[in-house]
Structures are given as structure tokens and as C-alpha cells.
Amino acid sequence: MQCEVIDINLTATFNFNPFTDLILEANIEKDGVFSHKAYGVYNGNDNFLLRFSFSEIGKYHYTIISNLTELDGKTGEIIVNPCQKKSGPLVINPENPSKLYYANGTPYQLYAFECDWLFAIDYKSETNKLERLINYFSDNHVNQIIMNVYANDLKFNNESWILDKNLRLEHNLGNDDDIFPFKGSNSNPDFSELNVDFFKHLDKIIKLLDRKNIIAHLMIYVWNKKVNWPDACSIADNMYFDYVVKRYSPFTNILWDISKEALAYGRCDAHYIINRILRLRKLDTYKRLLTVHEYNFCKKYQDLVDIISIQSWDLDIYKETRRLTSLHSNKPVLNLEHGGYEEGPYQVFTGHYTNAKTCLKRNYHIMFAGAYSAYYWQPLSWCITLMPWEATPEPHFDYYKHMIDFFTTYDYSQLYPVDKFGQFSGGGYLLANTENTLVVGYIPKENYGIGIGYVDHFKGIGTYRFFNTITGEYTSKVPLSGKARKIISPFEEDTIVIIDMRA
What we know:
By secondary structure, the chain is an alpha/beta fold. The protein folds into 3 domains: 6-80, Immunoglobulins (Immunoglobulin-like); 106-413, Alpha-Beta Barrel (TIM Barrel); 415-500. Helix content is 20%, strand content 26%. It is built from 9 helices and 28 strands. It has helices at residues 129-139, 196-211, 235-248, 270-283, 295-300, 317-327, 356-368, 378-381, 397-409, and strands at residues 6-11, 24-30, 33-42, 47-52, 58-66, 75-80, 90-92, 100-102, 112-114, 144-148, 155-156, 159-160, 182-184, 189-194, 215-222, 254-260, 290-293, 308-310, 333-335, 372-375, 416-418, 429-432, 438-443, 450-451, 463-468, 478-479, 486-487, 495-500. Strands 17-16-15-10-9-20-19-18 form an 8-stranded parallel beta sheet. A 6-stranded antiparallel beta sheet has the order 1-4-3-2-5-6, with helices on one face. A 6-stranded antiparallel beta sheet has the order 21-22-23-28-25-26, covered by helices on one side. A hairpin with a 7-residue loop joins strand 7 (90-92) and strand 8 (100-102). Helix 3 (235-248) packs across helix 4 and helix 6 (317-327) packs parallel to helix 7. It is globular, with a radius of gyration of 24 Å. The two termini are 40 Å apart.
């Protein structure tokens, strides 16, 4: 099917290291014209995996090139049928480069949640937590999971981040040496081979996310989670990196991130990150979007990334984000971490802001500044894996579900920050479309009312209504008479006012 991963399982004998010395490629043609190259990987025992995906329908022909005698020169045909359920991979639209789209032209209204230890859930036993959790994300309209390929333990400068002394051990997946992408363990690694079972489990996760149209924001490295990585650019390092790229680039729901906090912790420099980017671009024939979780790198080498990642905890997050979206107006900007980490039954890593409504407010401020943001809940974003339905009270995924539903109803891809709209200024944050016929304003609950009387554009046409950022409730639309000087929200929470003058 269109945009679906197609796995072809192959069998062959070999007498070399299949992780470092394997050549397994397929040249793909459509109607006699070269389309792209696909790579295969070793999949354990005498098995090899050749993985494809196709964004366009039609009949494709492939020819294998390999140093495996039994496979070299083999050919095959794949017929790709239409799939209405898939929107395709994420792309940059050159006509609107600051916003994200799917390949079929549908706007991608990004709602991300960070779940770094997703790779470890149900790794050792089938509890059905993994599938239930991904369904939970989907039911709450999460459409991107920020995740590590692998991480080990949640410690920083040899001090545990986990503050709660009543933590039940079964909820802590950190420091489990039996889960490791290489042979051996994190404390005693064998860097000569990879652990295929680790990647088979990661396959399951990526496929479950894909089935729910959730983007896997895959951070290939992480430096501050006590991982015993091989030396940079060593044979083992390249083996791991190449294997990840070859195995997962065919998935249409992949967004690459070279490393979490890439230039922090003294692990590498910009030259290494550039090396990884160029290596990935060569191997990823599907051209998935790429970012680096490090603003200083993105700022200096913005031509190498598709998305500008920032990590700003500023008190005035709106002002700082406006500065950055103005500076990078030709790229989508994503604030991966803004210091808002909603608390739960366990205290893990508190950041600067833990109150659920304050965290939500900061996400809205980032969105109204023209960027995208991410949601964190302490007992699931890191190595603590308390399921949301096990918590009392449950985390406020509902707040963010309302947020993304709002920006789908009022298409975020067509809204841009403005400082002033007539005399509608100073009381909140504003987004407007390019025709100024749709204006939405984020109004803090402390505001008594919104002055609109002298906005020339109104002229007695259109409507206004309010949206409750906590409950997702809308008021009825009220006609703009041209005489009103002030409109007052009926809600006691932060509100969005929608002034709609479209025909």
C-alpha cells in the first residue's frame, strides 16, 4: 500500500561480520526509470531484511546488489495501491516554509509528547502496555513522540534526578543493562555486533506509531543518560548509526534528530554532528526531515537542518520565541523543551514550571509566537513509565488535545504572529491570516475585556466567539455590529478570542 512499509525477508549464508561488511542494496525502477535505492540490513541468524516504502502508486521493479552470492542479482516486482489513510511523510512546503505539512499537502498541526524510554516498554514481557499507551496518545490527538533510540539511566553529574523516595521499582526502566542496542550490556558492551532483538522491538514501536499516524521523532544519540557509547566515528559507532538509518528511513513517520542536546556534556563537537548529518543524508534515500536538538548548532548551520530546534526556558517565552521565529522565518521552529514539566505522583525532573495550567500557558505562548512546542509529564517523559491511566489524577493530555483541535479548526499553518491589529493590542498575543480576515488572540484570564471598537476592518461584518483553553468549550458566534467597543469573555480561564471576517 502507498506509504506503508514493505518488508522482504531474505535468507542467505555468509562468512563475514554482517553488521560491518554487508553489502545489500536494491535499485528500484518505475516504468523503466530509476526511482531510488533501498538498503537492507542483517536481521539475525541467516536472515536479512530489505525494507521499502513508496509515496506514489504504481508498479515498481527492484534488482538486488549484494556480496551475498545467493541474493546478488535477484529481482522482484512490487505493486503499490492507493491508501487513503496515509498523508505521507512530513515535508517542507517552499510556499510556506515556516510551517510543517504532510506530503499530500495537508497541514501538520504538530502536538508532541516526549517519551524517552518508549523503546523499553514491554521489551521483556508482553503486558500490552505499549499498544495501550500508543492508543492513548492517539485518542488524545498526540501526533509526534519525541523518543530516544536508546538511553540508559536518568542521572546528571552522577546525581539522580529522581526526587521521589516512594518510587516503585517496576516503574523505573533506567539502568536496565539487559536492554541494549549492542551485544553484551551497557556496563559490559560488545561493540563488534548489534543486538537484533533490540531493533525488532523498536520496529514494533515504530509500526504501532505509524498505524496511528504518529511521527517518531527519533533521537539517534543522547549524551546525558549514562549510555556507554563507542568512540565517536569508530567502526562500532558507524555500524550503529548506519544500521539505524538504513532500518528506519523507509518509515514515512520518521523525523530524524541526530542527538538530544547534541553539543552539551563534552561528548562531541559540531564537526561530529556535521559528519553524522552528511552520513545520514547519503544513506537516507527517502529524504526524511532532520533536526538537531541543539539551537547553537541549528543557528550556525541552519542550511544543514530542516527544522530549527530550540530549548528555551525563558520566563518571557513568547518574546524569546518571537525573536527566534523572526530570525528563522524560512524554517519551522520547534521548542523541544521550555521548562514546563507537569508534575505527577512521582517527582522526577521538575524544571522551572510544574503546574499543569502554567505548562499549558507556555505551550500556547510558543504557538502564538509562531513556533511548535512539546508537552512533558514527569512520570512518563523520562525513565519512569507510569501509565497515564494508572495516575491519580491523570495527566492533562486533554488540555493539549483541546489546543491541537483548536489549531486544526483554525488552521495554524495559515496563521502568523502580529503585534497589533487596529487597537486590539497590548492585552494578549495575536495571530492573523495574511488577509487579516481571521484574527485569534490569546487573552490571559486577568484581562477584563478586549477593546475592539476602532478596528477599521470590522465595519460591521463577521463574528466573534471565545474558546476556553482548559475545557475546550466555545461560545456561540456573535455578529460584529460595528458598534461594540469592548467584548468580555464569559470564562474565568485563559481565553482565545476568534474574530472571523471571512466571507
